[in-house]
Amino acid sequence: MKTLRLLTTLALAGGLAMGAYWSSHDGRWSVHAEATPAPARADRTPLYYRDPSDAPLWSAGPKQDDRGRDYLPVYEDDQVTAVAPKPPQAASSRKILYYRNPMGLPDTSPVPKKDPMGMNYVPVYEGDEVDDGTVKLSPGKIQRSGVKSEPARRRAIRVAVKAPGTIQLDERRVSVIAMRAESFVQKVADVTTGTRVKAGQPLMEIYSSAVASAAAEYLATITSKTVGGVEMYGRGSRQRLVNLDVPEQVIAEMERTRVAPVTVHWSAPRDGIVLERNAIEGMRANPGDVLFRIADISLVWALADVAERDLGNVAVGQSVAVRARSFPGRIFSAHIAVVYPQVNRDTRTVRVRIELANPDAALLPDMYVDAEIDTADSAPVLAIQDSSVLDTGTRQAVLVDKGEGRFEPREVKLGRRGGGYIEVRDGLADGEAVVTSANFLIDAESNLKAALKGFAEGAPQASDAGHATGEHK
């Protein structure tokens, strides 16, 4: 028994001499060996200090644990006594390039690190960032962001130019009844402003001494039996009646009956609406006085004002859909007949004439309308959705989907827009897939990655400068 106690005492003394210590757990004692601190070296500066019991604790300067033991210094080339902090093991065997801020801030670190909130920096592996100008996203991020792609295809761009306008009369379908000689209105038919009349319908009864004299002369000529020059003289007398604007049916009646009328019945020259009635029974009409004005509104004009910026897309013959504000939902189809060669200096618009069929007389003069000009070109062009374009004002770019989560920013030159699509004149090939949604998120990701990459490239230089400064000191 004395021999056993002696051996135990010797073992305890030897263990304490070697830096070991005893601990009790559940009444049982066990001995723990401590690492012997490495001798301090005056010519080098420790990188950091580690816990003497190999616990995962480190310190930037000299420190003691809760038992009063000094932390062990770790030098840059210390392979025996230094135990460097072990970075989190990556699930992949790829090389870690650097660690980036978990909150997306432009801050990187060449070694594992925590942010002020205690969050671990995220490792960036080799291959996550490539130098071919593409942006790579994980499948999960693509799904969460709602990224969608669509191939560029050749299609006809439908560009609709909208312009306000008014309904006007067709200048070629307006007739005026005016006397060419001094006359008197004997009687006026039951016709008022706004009345619809037919061609040949009586309007008024006129007495004119000039017309009566010409009619008598013409009848005397055609009834004369004198031979020689009568035929030529008769043609001259008839032309005089025509020059006085005597209706053709009145002249024909004179030739049939061989009677010169005292008064002449004036009739409507065309189908239309009476726009103006100035004839009054018993009035005296001087040469040039307008007694009736009649317009045919079966065909009218829509004069629309097209903005100057849209003039290059407008041409004669293009189809137009005209909507009258008085008839919601009704569309009047027509074509552009004339593009007037003048720009309004005040409104910076160009007037176009659209000829409209108006069989039911629904469109009235001075009525407001809205014209939508279809400028679609039958020739298909390479086009993409307008949501695909990232426009900075001076440059336009798209994100080309290269597959496997890689996206390439590419500058393009654009053309006409319309129908939700934009013509691509340069920068894309037929069939290349471009991102149509969430492209702004990818663009932000690419900017962030570029910033992080710049910080990562500058980090080793800053570290080397720090070491150089420490050695210099």
Describe the structure.
The chain has about 475 residues and is an alpha+beta fold. It has five domains: about 1-75, no CATH class; about 95-135 and about 445-470, no CATH class; about 140-150 and about 380-440, conserved putative lor/sdh protein from methanococcus maripaludis s2 fold, CATH 2.40.420.20; about 160-170 and about 295-375, Elongation Factor Tu (Ef-tu), domain 3, CATH 2.40.30.170; about 190-280, no CATH class. It is about 20% helix and about 35% strand. It contains six helices and 32 strands. It has helices at about 1-15, 140-145, 210-225, 230-245, 250-255, 440-470, and strands at about 20-25, 30, 50, 60, 70-75, 95-100, 110, 120-125, 135, 150, 155, 160-170, 175-180, 185-190, 195, 200-205, 265, 270-275, 285, 290-295, 300-305, 320-325, 330-345, 350-355, 370-375, 380-385, 390, 395-405, 405-410, 415-420, 420-425, 435. A six-stranded antiparallel beta barrel has the order 12-21-24-23-22-25. It has a four-stranded antiparallel beta sheet with strand order 9-29-28-27, with helices on one face. A four-stranded antiparallel beta sheet has the order 11-26-31-30, with no helix packed on it. A hairpin with a 2-residue loop joins β1 and β2. α3 packs antiparallel against α4 (about 230-245). The protein is rod-shaped. It comes from Bradyrhizobium shewense. GO terms for molecular function: transition metal ion binding; transmembrane transporter activity.
